[in-house]
Amino acid sequence: MKVPKENLVGSENEAFLIFDSMMIPERLTSAAGVLGMARAALDVAVRYSSRRKAFGRPIREFQGVSFKVADAIMELDAARGLVYLAARAADEDGNARRLVSEAKRFATEVAWRVVNHSMQILGGIGYTNVFPVERLLRDIRLAMIWTGTSEVMNLIIQHEYYREVLKGKKDEREVELDATDYNEEEVVFE
Ligand SMILES: Cc1cc2nc3c(=O)[nH]c(=O)nc-3n(C[C@H](O)[C@H](O)[C@H](O)COP(=O)(O)OP(=O)(O)OC[C@H]3O[C@@H](n4cnc5c(N)ncnc54)[C@H](O)[C@@H]3O)c2cc1C
């Protein structure tokens, strides 16, 4: 397909650079968005567990329930901290690929666990559409895939960190070859 010069977006052969810079706000948006979705599901579970009774008392009095809430809010707060750190780095120097990838992967995986715990706290009714948690569970699952999968986030994180540590060193490795080391004999432990 031919595109007239005047219709070019940016310069020729620089599409990847444009794509790469677009991915910073895209991934931050995914990371920040899921925090709110997970918090919404957790708040439903907190309210429900204060009212729902089993074995004669509100289920929040069972640690099997309330400790799930403790884990969930702790992880969400940690994820929020990482998202803010990445957003600040993106605002300040624009070279925030590692932190943004960490925030995207961490926040989306935490959010998935939190919504999953929230549904567990609701029991059977959590699976129905009486509460919005089943919808949040489906929507959050996508966040570990779109704007770059968790595996691709890992590729970027390790790549950027290797570059950061080995910068300027003579023996800088080709990080793409991490899985192979041509200079060593393979050792098999039996
Ligand atoms: C509802 C929805 C909306 C979307 N919206 C948009 C949008 O608006 N804009 C947009 O650009 N894209 C959008 N996407 C596409 C989305 O970003 C891609 O689906 C996603 O990046 C994964 O690419 P893929 O589906 O081609 O999977 P693949 O690249 O085929 O990956 C399949 C699996 O292989 C793994 N994998 C691939 N390469 C490696 C590797 N090197 N190392 C380890 N594991 C690897 C992946 O992690 C994944 O688990 C959307 C997708 C969906 C489902």
**Sequence of strands across the biggest β-sheet:** 1-2
Number of domains: 1
Which superfamily, in CATH terms, is the homologous superfamily? Answer: Butyryl-CoA Dehydrogenase, subunit A, domain 3
Share of helix, binned? 55-70%
3D structure, described in words:
By secondary structure, this protein is mainly α. It has one domain: Up-down Bundle (Butyryl-CoA Dehydrogenase, subunit A, domain 3). It has 5 helices and 2 strands. The protein has helices at residues 15-51, 63-92, 97-122, 133-143, 150-166; strands at 53-54, 57-58. It has a two-stranded antiparallel ribbon. Strand 1 (53-54) and strand 2 form a beta hairpin. Helix 1 (15-51) packs antiparallel against helix 2, helix 3 runs antiparallel to helix 4 (133-143) and helix 3 (97-122) runs antiparallel to helix 5. It is elongated. The mean pLDDT is 90. Residues 142, 145-149, 151-152, 155 line the site of flavin-adenine dinucleotide.
A few lines on this structure:
The chain is 64% helix and 2% strand. It has five helices and two strands. It has helices at 15-51, 63-92, 97-122, 133-143, 150-166; strands at 53-54, 57-58.
